[in-house]
Amino acid sequence: MRRIRAAAAALAVLLTSLLVLGQGPAHADTYTRISGAGSTWSQNAIDQWRRNVTQYGMTIDYAGTGSSDGRQQFAHGTVDFAVSEIPYGMTEFGVREAPPQRGYAYMPIVAGGTSFMYNLKIGNRRVTNLRLGGSTLAKIFTGKITRWNDRQIAADNPGLTLPDRKIIPVVRSDGSGTTAQFTLWMSKQQGALWNDYCERLGKPTPCGLTSYYPVIPGSGFIAQSGSLGVSGYTRQDYAEGAITYVEYSYAVTTGFPVAKVLNADGYYTEPTAANVAVALTQAEINQNKNSTQYLTQILDKVYTYRDPRVYPLSSYSYMILPTTTEAPVTPAKGKTLGAFGYYFLCEGQRQAQPLGFSPLPINLVQAGFEQLRRVPGVAVQNINIQGCHNPTFSSDGTNTLAKNAPRPPACDRQGPTQCTAGTGGAVKQPTPVKPAANGTAGGTAAGTTTGGAPNAATSGGTPGTTGSPGGSGSGTSGSATAGSTTGGGTPGTAAAGGTAGGVDPDTGLPVGDAGGTGTGGQDIVASSVPVGDDPFWGLRTWLMGLSALLLLAVVVAPPTIARRLGRTGKRDGRA
To answer: Which of 316, 232, 303, 294 is nearest to 261 (CA)?
Structure first.
């Protein structure tokens, strides 16, 4: 019996040793702590990803101090990475921001929509189905419309009798990528109103974008720091009548509604993941790898895209990566940053939609993997991209999320009807409308999108002409002429080319690229994807399963063997 117990103990020791050895990269790898700062627009996603990677031994510190501060901290060498919605080199009120002296590169991390979260009631009932046109929004945030019962707001909302209550515009007090995106949209789409507002402040015009929202003293505007600051103020009972601009995630996670915004096709939409995905098929992405602006975005065609599903204020957020080892970056920190990047570009994109964001399309995930190779000390991984389970991916390279995006109901079309369904975090709280304007969210959907599923417009030199999205045109595998759109057939890849289109007066950035060639458009209809081994995540999953089986064996097998052998011994003794 002693020999049996000794053998069982030896087996347990052996299996335990194998279990320890089989823990995989999560415990075999060691990671140096890293820090970053910047955007609050994408902070909800970043914070979730940071929490997730602690299981792999990574510690990622991140301070949501605003995009402007994040860029400055990165330039001054006080953080290892930054996150921003706008790049270096933008011109604000005639002053251009100088790029950092250290090496850097941009990498898109997530997409989303700048939404308009509000706090408004009719009687004691919260309004959850507010609709606002572009001109209406611009007038609210330039002080031209000051009461909720204004005629222009009433025209946007035929089903509601809104109260005679003062509007409280809540803006950012810090340097913000959200402010930059909103004011860029106003400068492009509501330029006269935005320039008039800047003139009243004594600012030079044309006004263009700004990261710091200018406020006229005594205007009744409220300025708060960070996305949590503006959304937190808007939510308070004492702030009834307030409206702010903030990433959709903050409304979704706090249970508050957002205004549906009128798009170029005449429909009021909110920034759902699918609506953002459709809109960003028209984003022009700098494809010149020799340009310091590689992978940055130009959104002009997003604003004007005529598809009923589009949310016009859609955009990407970017991580600013170090490409050299100036302090504080070391190869050990680069290893951690690279592993973190691989995680959120693959696994992390699955969590984008529940958090109120929209996942990256496959071509930008691939471009992100390439950018990570430039980080000093990165442990390059051969990710099996089909295992990322990104909702935009498909077997043929098309953007599934955009292709399958539902059409808005007929009651969301500009006109005499209005849907009752709630929005944002209040989606389950409908708001009744007048009988004459009654429309339900489940009504007849909008007409089919012109040309079928959206494809990406391309650019070259003077921004290229966009063909009918999708449509019956054929595309062959390889390159499409810059400035055209391929549709149908085998997915085609847009190529950069043409003559530079000059400088965008609102941003100070070239419409083409630094090298004098036009930027390639975002290639949503991507070329075929090479599938490789997945040692980092696949091996880890296999070893975790093996570890569980071995643990079961350690606990169950020895006593079971001992009991069976003991019974056998007793029978032999009786014999």
So the answer is: 303
